[in-house]
Write a structure and sequence with these properties.
The structure holds two protein chains of two kinds. By secondary structure, chain A is α/β, with parallel strands linked by helices. Chain A folds into three domains: 220 residues, MFS general substrate transporter like domains (Growth Hormone, Chain: A); 33 residues, no CATH class; 245 residues, Vaccinia Virus protein VP39 (Rossmann fold), CATH 3.40.50.150. Chain A is 57% helix and 15% strand. Chain A has a seven-stranded mixed beta sheet with strand order 7-6-5-8-9-11-10, sandwiched between helices. In chain A, strand 10 and strand 11 form a beta hairpin. The longest helix of chain A has 54 residues. The radius of gyration of chain A is 30 Å and the shape is elongated. The N terminus of chain B is likely disordered. By secondary structure, chain B is of the alpha/beta class. Chain B has 17 helices and 20 strands. In chain B, helix 3 packs across helix 17, helix 7 crosses helix 9 and helix 11 runs antiparallel to helix 12. Classes of the chains: A alpha/beta, B alpha/beta. At the A-B interface, helix 12, helix 13 and helix 14 of A face loops of B.
């Protein structure tokens, strides 16, 4: 019954399959390349290596095709399903393994290679399937024409349609579904020529279901709205019991957000961390033992480790996911110069307040880098109760420094921190500087005794701070003053949270 | 499908729906009724005991290890009377200030806070200093309280008109004339706060017996709070609810039952000033007033006998014989003391003394209201808009008093679970009826009642409650109905017997607050010190 028309349409079905395979294959390659440049930076290198690996793998696939001798259509369909499986899930896999620092690149290239090999097997197989049905000259011309048209289509729709509207995870899943769909269609079309069509179809449907579920669930893996909420591409995001951690990246910088609040931009964080750390460290003679509360990104630790006198640094941060990320993940530990792996640094994952209550050690310098007091929970870490405990953890000549939000946006909040420290028995020195990604930012130094003296020099490696800069930082213009008597922040009034909410609320409304 | 078939099918589904619903709610929340050893206590009523074989000689025996009893014992020991023993039928001391604990926090089973104390209460302040609640005194002579013990912000919130508002005094969505009524009410309260009677005493003071006995004030004890509010033209649904909430909260007595004097006392007797707290701040702990119980017990090592149900108290020639049942061994034991403090409610005192006259007087005048207190262990709950989760969370118009978050005073950033202590004074019926009903009610029914009450503010409370334990207080506190405070029944019941048996309990004060229990104990102890 099928006769010549059957043969004829079979040929076209297979050519459409080539077209789709080519499109999908290139899409997977583009997904891998984009992801790698988001996650690892340096897009030229990433794309170059991935294209190389992909093409080379296709070569391996072409070579391997010689070992397939019988049941070519069946193998073609099987491989089609496999491409759909591997390629479809590639983006999810890459996002998930990203925090497992050391295994990321091998997995990335393995996935690219696998897709390449599978696609590489398919084209020769197809040529062989069709060789009896079409004249060779015709065949080569048609197969490669469709292959390259597919490639062009992929390279156009990927950046223009899929990435903006579906995001990477859904794009790869979408093309996975397409691959599997083609496989299933071929399976039905060539049912007569296939031995165990039922089993293959069953496998295909399983993959189809898995990818559909993942497609729907991808909203949770990396929600579309979240991608929109940040200006840049979200390269990593996770919810820990403590907070939502999001890392974004563009070609200029990498940014860390905790609960949607910017913590640093790799472009200008040195301004913040030099200003946070060095005034306090230079106010202590020969600081040996330093405590960091918060600061799980290891950036304050990086600055502290520049002092030769430092023997130990204890870093107390609530969230093990944060410190693990900034210890193990290469592009992140690159920024903190592997400070969290320094033998002088001990990382303790504990609640700072609870830890301080139990702590019996005393330190020469304490750097407090908590999130802003935007809620009642974190507000407790800015109270007289907390600062009185802090005092017990400081040696007689010790100095502490507290990041204290923006004195420009929230002058009352900023000076409330200072007042609270004074009420807890400290002498304070307030200062501020400009951090482009934050705006005008403020810090309060707290000393158990004595007056603050400007150091003659800051003799560590630095990009920003100097005696002249420090002199400027101590000057507060009128628009950064509170202009009214302020309440002291206590557990039983949480005055700071109220100031903070009002001031930042008003600022963000504008 | 034919129409008739369709009707049959839907009818069938409708019939099955309640069954399905029943199945869904079958998934009961674990927990138990932990009750204030009601069964043991009721032995006293339903059982007669043999006399003990012998009597051990003791200096002072205190019966009841609640706030009054422990305060008496503490004061005696402090004053050098070492031969003191305190008996209590419960396995732990504490009375209404009992507390419990689980893996996540301690939590109260009853009284859970004290307001910042009035500054004239010297003995109370020095106790708080001893308990390290007061860390020192500021320049102006005002006490400095340990910040960890002052109730942390956010303190109180009220769910009203679809939103949580700050504080318990209704204001969200109220119109100007209603707000005006509140203003009027509080200006009356301010007046009473400052008012002195013709005898020069504060109109409303703590302990209640230090208040003025001016006739113009005593008249307030002859009417209900509702009658007084009617007379003052305080007409607003919201203020009625608020005052009723307050009198049920402190006295377990609705505002149309409570004496106006007691009702006003609730608002006008608190005048405490502190160096680092506002006048309306409170002191609280994870375990509520269980913290203060620990502090009262501090110097009573070896002097506390729990699981000891006193069964009889008899004055003898020159002492007092006390029989008690060792609840564990079921043995009746005897103590012969020179002095005895009966720090138990008067209805129990009458039984122990086999004093029918006293029994009749108590029955005729004192009403003890039953309470149900529950502890819910919850995961994070869905929140309605407005003020975030606070220490005290009250639902406007609700029958319960809402819940207090026992983990609120924890300073940690992340709380895996929270323990919510839910309070329900059983004032819907006469105390006797409500009490019997409460003892009959099963755990599942209590749990359901609580969930239904809290569901409007936490729609997912059913799914996120892991455990509910229930405490029943059969006779939680005496109700300060008209005539209790300024009548003469309290005074006559409080009189010591033969200079050897003294009484100390908040029912003799008429209002069940920590300070009253504390001073009841001290007053009894002083009577003993006068004797020796």
């Amino acid at each position: 019954m099928k006769g010549t028309t059957g043969k004829h349409s079979a040929q076209w079905v297979l050519l459409v399959a080539v077209f789709i395979i080519a499109t999908c294959g290139l899409i997977y390659e583009l997904v891998a390349g984009t992801l790698a440049s988001y996650l690892l930076g340096d897009s030229v290198t990433q794309f170059s290596i991935i294209i190389g690996v992909y093409l080379f793998s296709m070569g391996i696939g072409s070579y391997l095709s010689r070992f397939f001798n019988d049941h070519l259509i069946e193998w073609f369909i099987r491989i089609e399903l496999l491409v759909g499986l591997v390629g479809g899930f590639s983006a999810i896999i890459l996002f998930l393994v990203f925090p497992l620092a050391f295994s990321f690149q091998p997995i990335l290239y393995a996935l690219v290679a696998m897709t390449g090999i599978l696609v590489g097997i398919e084209i020769p197989l197809l040529l062989r399937i069709l060789k009896d049905k079409v004249e060779f000259k015709e065949l080569v011309s048609r197969v490669f024409t469709y292959d390259y048209i597919g490639a062009l289509l992929a390279s156009l729709i990927f950046p223009l349609v899929f990435v903006p509207y579906l995001g990477l995870i859904r794009t790869s899943l979408f093309f996975g579904l397409l691959n599997v769909g083609v496989g299933l269609y071929l399976c039905r079309y060539f049912a007569v020529e296939i031995r165990r069509a039922g089993a293959i179809r069953f496998g295909g449907i399983l993959i189809l279901i898995a990818e559909t579920v993942a497609f729907i669930f991808s909203e949770q893996i990396m929600s579309f709205s979240e991608t929109l909420a940040y200006n840049d591409q979200v390269v990593y995001s996770t919810s820990t019991p403590y907070q939502r951690i999001v890392i974004t990246k563009n070609r200029h910088d990498l940014r860390l957000y905790l609960n949607n609040n910017l913590q640093f931009s790799s472009a200008d964080e040195y301004r913040y961390h030099e200003a946070l750390v060095h005034p306090a460290m230079t106010a202590v003679r020969e600081p040996r033992n330093v405590l960091i509360l918060g600061g799980g990104d290891g950036l304050a630790a990086r600055e502290i480790l520049k002092y030769k006198s430092v023997k130990t640094v204890q870093l107390v941060d609530l969230d093990p996911v944060m410190t693990r990320l900034f210890t193990g993940q290469h592009i992140l530990s690159e920024i903190n110069r592997h400070s969290l792996r320094d033998p002088r640094v001990t990382v303790i994952n504990a609640d700072a307040f609870m830890w301080l209550k139990e702590n019996e050690k005393q330190f020469d310098c304490v750097v407090i880098d908590f999130p802003d007091p935007s809620g009642f929970s974190v507000g407790k870490l800015y109270t007289t109760a907390f600062y009185r405990l802090l005092k017990t953890a400081m040696k007689p000549g010790a100095v502490a420094v507290i990041q204290s939000t923006s004195p420009y946006v929230a002058p009352k909040s900023f000076w409330c921190v200072s007042e609270t420290l004074k009420a807890s028995g400290f002498q304070t020195v307030a200062y501020h500087n400009y951090v482009p990604s934050f705006g005008e930012w403020g810090y309060v130094m707290a000393m158990k005794s004595g007056a603050y003296q400007l150091p003659d020099t800051f003799s560590i490696e630095k990009k920003y701070i100097s005696r002249a800069v420090m002199e400027q930082m101590l000057q507060f213009p009128d628009d950064m003053l509170a202009h009214e008597p302020l309440e002291v922040n206590k557990l039983n009034n949480q005055a700071l949270v109220n100031y903070f909410e009002k001031e930042w609320g008003k600022y963000l409304e504008q | 499908m034919k129409r008739s078939e369709f009707i049959k099918l839907t009818a069938g589904m409708a019939a099955a729906a309640p069954l399905l619903h029943a199945c869904a709610s079958e998934k009961s929340i674990p927990g138990e009724i932990v009750g204030a050893s009601a069964a043991t206590g009721h032995l006293l009523r339903d059982h007669s005991f043999n006399a003990p074989a012998e009597y051990e000689q003791r200096g002072v025996v205190v019966i009841g290890a609640g706030v009054s009893g422990l305060s008496a014992a503490r004061y005696l020991v402090q004053q050098g009377v070492k031969d003191v023993i305190v008996l209590d039928l419960e396995p732990q001391a504490g009375g209404n200030a009992a507390s419990g604990s689980n893996a996540f926090s301690k939590y109260p089973w009853g009284a859970h806070y004290v307001p910042v104390p009035n500054n004239n209460l010297t003995e109370y302040l020095s106790f708080l200093e001893e308990a390290k609640v007061i860390t020192g005194y500021a320049d102006a002579g005002l006490p400095v309280y340990d910040e960890f013990y002052l109730c942390h912000e956010p303190e109180e919130r009220l769910y009203i008109n679809g939103q949580w508002q700050e504080g318990l005094i209704p204001n969200f969505g109220l119109n100007a004339s209603e707000l005006q009524v509140f203003k009027q009410f509080f200006s009356l309260i301010t007046h009473f706060k400052q008012l002195k009677g013709s005898d020069g005493r504060d109109a409303f003071s703590i302990p209640v017996d230090t208040s003025s006995r001016d006739e113009s004030l005593r008249v307030l004890d002859r009417m209900t709070m509702k009658a007084w509010m009617d007379g003052q033209n305080l007409i607003s649904e919201h203020i009625r609810w608020y005052v009723d909430y307050c009198t049920r909260d402190d006295f377990g007595t609705p505002y149309d039952v409570v004496s106006a004097w007691a009702g006003i006392h609730y608002f006008a007797s608190r005048k405490g000033k502190a160096a680092n707290a506002a006048y309306n701040d409170v002191l609280t702990w994870e375990q509520g007033n269980g913290f203060l119980i620990e502090a009262l017990k501090k110097n009573l090592d070896g002097k506390l006998v729990t699981g000891a149900l006193a069964t009889a108290v008899k004055p003898t020639g020159d002492g007092v014989k006390i029989d008690y049942l060792d609840v564990v061994t079921r043995q009746v034991k005897g103590l012969e003391a020179r002095q005895c403090v009966m720090a138990v409610p008067q209805f129990v005192a009458a039984r122990l003394l086999r004093d029918e006259e006293r029994g009749k007087t108590v029955k005729g005048h004192f009403q003890y209201v039953p309470w149900m207190v529950a502890n819910l262990t919850v995961n994070s709950l869905h929140e309605r808009g407005g003020q975030p989760a606070s220490w005290d969370n009250v639902i406007y118009g609700g029958r319960s008093l809402g819940y207090v978050d026992a983990t609120h005073q924890q300073i940690r950033q992340l709380k895996e679970r929270r323990n919510l202590t839910y309070y329900l004074p059983l004032t819907h019926a006469l105390p006797d009826t409500a009490r019997k009903e409460a003892y009959r009610t099963q755990h599942a029914a209590w749990a359901e009642k609580i969930l239904v009450d809290l569901q409007p503010v936490h729609p997912d409370i059913r799914q996120n409650t892991e455990r509910i334990d229930i405490m029943l207080w059969g006779h939680a506190m005496v109700q300060p109905r008209p005539g209790i405070i300024h009548g003469d029944v309290r005074q006559s019941l409080a009189k010591s017997i033969e200079g050897r048996i003294h009484f100390a309990h908040t029912d003799l004060a008429g209002v069940s607050i920590f300070e009253e229990g504390f001073y009841q104990g001290i007053a009894a102890a002083r009577k003993i010190l006068q004797q020796t």
